[in-house]
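W.,

You were right to be curious about this one. When I first looked at the sequence I had no strong expectations either way, so I just let the prediction run and decided to look at it fresh. Below is the sequence, 416 residues in total, followed by the output.
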Amino acid sequence: MNRQPVVVALGALGQTLWGRDAPPGRPLLARWPRLARAAAPIGLLAALGLFWITLSVELDLGLPTPVAVLFAAMTVAPLLALPRRPLLAWRLTVLALLVCTFNAPAEQPGPWTAPLALGSIVVVALTVARVDRPVLAWVVVITAIPVLTLVRPQDRPAVLALLGALAIVGDLIRRNRLSRRALAAQTELSEREQERRAVLEERTRIARELHDVVAHHMSLIAVQAETAPYRLDDVPAPAAAEFVAIAGSARDALTDMRRLLGVLRSEASGPQTAPQPDLADLGAMVDAARRAGLALTLDAEPSGPVPTPVGLAAYRIVQEGLANAARHAPGAAVRVTVRSGPSALGVRVDNSPPDAPPTAFARDVPPAADGGAGHGLTGMRERATSLGGTFTAGPLPDGGYAVAAELPYEVGSLNT
């Protein structure tokens, strides 16, 4: 005999009667913060008003004042506990339904006052929407006890039908809320995974580009070391052997870098033989953007050569900044500023608010480095931080947007 359903039912009964309450859900007024702040005092005033109304009704029915006060308090107490403790509110409601009865006149429709009856419906409706199915079943069964005991026989089918309808609707609401919560959690997880993947892809691309930069200089070291004995006169044998060792180490480093590049390069990305761009190629990119219809101003005043990795990072940041401006602010004026200092290169791309329909550039601009997945800022930040620099991005006071990067370097290192 399978005891699992019995164990589940008994566990649900224990939770219903004295177990932990339902977990708190999202506040009903979470979308309206101002209204939520006023909800507590308004609710207290409403509860006080309901208490006096119930007390007046009980006194009009001829109940003694202490009994009337007790019944009015038991009517209001479940509503006060309902927002945070729905199961507790339901327990108080069942107790009130069993206790707060009176000898109703013949013209009264039931054994309870109207505030208690309506308040009980509200409590049951919100409780069944917050608990799981086993607890919901016990809530409906136990709530039916005072109905079958105290309500007149001719009114019992209607009240039981109302309980069944509340149970069905409450279960549907709870399942819908759980589905939406699971979907939101899955969406957040997917977004985090996409961000992580974008970071990894951008880091891989940066590693490939740095390979090309460093490999060029390592090749120069190897060539210079191998040709030094022939270019210099009277090179001692130990020095010539040292040059040969330097050349061998450089070539070993090149071999290891090529192996690493083979691991980093994805199968879809074939060999990249084109030279890597740098600051000297900004003019060509700006001209192409202007021909495509972008209102672009270039303010570039490099004071001298900068290291190749810095120039490449600056070029990619400007490229992604222009793509984002064309994509998210069509028709806006864009300004690119490049300033070379004694130990850092400053790059800034800002645009005015969009004030025109998308131009041809917005339609024809190539996708961003991250594949157009909405993580261009992540790629720009990765490029800046990989060089030990800083990156900021955010809206401007006039409604535009700006990205800025500070790329440090040591003078004389990897100069182009």
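Here's what jumped out at me. Residues 356-374 have pLDDT under 50 and may be disordered. And, maybe more interesting for your project: The longest strand covers residues 344-351.

Coffee later to discuss?

I.
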